[in-house]
Design goal:
This protein has about 475 residues and is an alpha/beta fold. About 40% of the residues lie in helices and about 15% in strands. The chain has helices at about 10, 30-45, 55-70, 70-80, 100-105, 140-170, 175-185, 195-200, 205-210, 230-235, 265-275, 290-305, 325-330, 330-345, 365-385, and strands at about 110-115, 115-120, 135, 240, 250-255, 265, 280-285, 310-320, 355-360, 390-395, 420-425, 430, 435, 440-445, 450-455.
Length: about 475
């Protein structure tokens, strides 16, 4: 991709004009379409909420003038500078407001959630996390800035892993990549301490003695078992999500379009966030068949996963009698969910971790209709299409939002999860506290939710943020 020329204040001038409603016209139909598209992208840039650099503000001033004067030629000249998903022009957008030390803390192992939206269109009665009153969209520019920092931290961990494996090779003569290949050829997955003790008796004692002295210990899961320290993916891999009280397929940033004018969608967010080291966990309540942007986004996610299966951790579809569409028209909802399942649970990309959750309320009077019109037909649909997925059923508990009852015996809390750092759409840093159980697994106390720390890594009003609050 060729480098876009830098924008200088001197070439644009300093005068800013207030734009007036206008339509730029042309006699050539093809040129008309191109001009309208450029005008659309220009107006999208003016609506950008993520803070701009001085260069970005200068460009915005020139766009204001060009649109205000209905200057078709100038709009065309400015078109090459306008950001698109394909050519994001990140120099136009401010860096995240955090120090290098804070970056390691925010975007290292403890990062749990880059939440692309807040609020939800599904209005599920059983939801444990009431959605925000209005939809909040994380600017796509913010998604890209965050993903940049994630990749930087992953590169640092790669360097530490190389140093760690070299230390082991020099100290024991053992090549960890060869150990992993041997385990794979024998069908042995980690943890594999028994195998190592038998064939590499010097390895584990050396690892135990050297691990606490090596800087890699600061970048890893604190619960890492000793034999996990011998497998690169076990050490470097950390699942993240893009949802909490939202549905990822609601995402659309109209201020950051593609070259063809369509807004950035969740497929673009997934592509930015997911990597071999940061596979993304997706849970969704689906979408309406009329929602073409959501379907387009889902197709992008599936295409990315076919190209690299390591990009996803799990895809999970939630089916419920409490979902808005299920309550109003169960027949239509069933057909919607068939398309969702067919799109997301494709044989070529699904694994044993992919699953569909059927929420069930034993005391719900319309339950019989829901089973007959939705649940049972969908189960039959899944079986008939030979989809290699797991079907699970979850009872309504006293944590189940508006469907919860005082006499509910179930205590499953579906929102007591995602321990660690959450980045909210407005740049707020929140933290979900956790402890470790006896098996060195992270646990969140039931009823606990992520709490804002008082810090922000960007402000949508563009004001400076000096990160004077404690992050965690």
């Amino acid at each position: 991709m060729s480098k876009t020329p830098e924008i200088s204040t001197s070439s644009f001038g300093d005068e800013l004009l207030i734009p007036v409603p206008c339509t730029i016209r042309s006699e050539d139909p093809n040129r008309e379409n191109n001009t309208v598209l450029l005008e659309k992208r220009a107006k999208a840039y003016l609506a950008q909420r993520y803070p701009l650099t001085s260069e970005g503000k200068t460009l915005r001033g020139e766009v204001v003038k060009a649109l205000g004067y209905s200057d078709t030629k100038r709009v065309k000249e400015l078109g090459i500078y306008l950001p698109t998903v394909e050519n994001p022009q990140l120099h136009l957008f401010k860096d995240l407001e955090c120090t290098p030390e804070q970056e390691e803390q925010l975007f290292g192992w403890d990062l749990a959630n880059v939440q692309c939206t807040a609020g939800c269109t599904h209005d599920c009665l059983q939801c444990s996390t009431p959605p925000a009153e209005k939809m909040e969209i994380m600017p796509y520019a913010a998604v890209l800035k965050i993903s940049e920092k994630m990749r930087e931290q992953e590169a640092k961990k790669d360097d530490l892993w190389a140093s760690w494996t070299e230390l082991i090779r020099n100290g024991t003569g053992i090549d960890l990549e060869e150990v992993e290949r041997q385990c794979a050829s024998r069908g042995i997955s980690y943890p594999f301490a028994g195998f190592l003790e038998k064939y590499y008796p010097t390895l584990i004692p050396f690892v135990k003695s050297e691990y606490t002295k090596h800087p890699i210990k600061y970048t890893l899961n604190p619960s890492t078992n000793v034999d996990y320290l011998l497998v690169k993916r076990a050490v470097l891999r950390k699942v993240i999500t893009n949802y909490y009280n939202n549905d990822v397929f609601d995402y659309a940033d109209k201020t950051f379009p593609h070259e063809d004018g369509t807004p950035a969608d969740y497929g673009d967010v997934f592509a930015a966030c997911a990597s071999d080291a940061r596979p993304v966990h997706v849970t969704t309540a689906g979408w309406s068949r009329k929602n073409k942007p959501a379907k387009r986004a889902a197709d992008k996610v599936m295409a990315a996963c076919r190209n690299n299966p390591h990009l996803k951790d799990m895809i999970r579809v939630s089916v419920s009698s409490g979902e808005r569409r299920a309550r109003s028209n169960p027949d239509d909802y069933r057909e919607d969910m068939k398309e969702v399942i067919k799109t997301l649970m494709q044989t070529s990309t699904s694994g044993l971790r992919d699953n569909i959750i059927f929420y069930s309320d034993p005391k719900d009077p319309p339950k019989k209709e829901y089973l007959q019109k939705v649940a049972w037909p969908l189960e039959a649909f899944i079986v008939s299409h030979h989809m290699p997925i797991v079907i699970t059923s979850t009872d309504i508990s006293h944590f189940s939002g508006r469907q919860a009852r005082e006499d509910s015996k179930g205590d499953h809390d579906g929102a007591a999860c995602m321990p660690g750092i959450h980045v909210w759409p407005d740049g707020t840093i929140a933290y979900q506290a956790y402890t470790f159980n006896g098996h060195a697994r992270m646990e969140v106390k039931k009823g606990e939710r992520p709490r804002p720390t008082g810090a922000k890594i960007y402000r949508l009003d563009g004001h400076n943020n000096h990160m004077n609050s404690t992050l965690v």
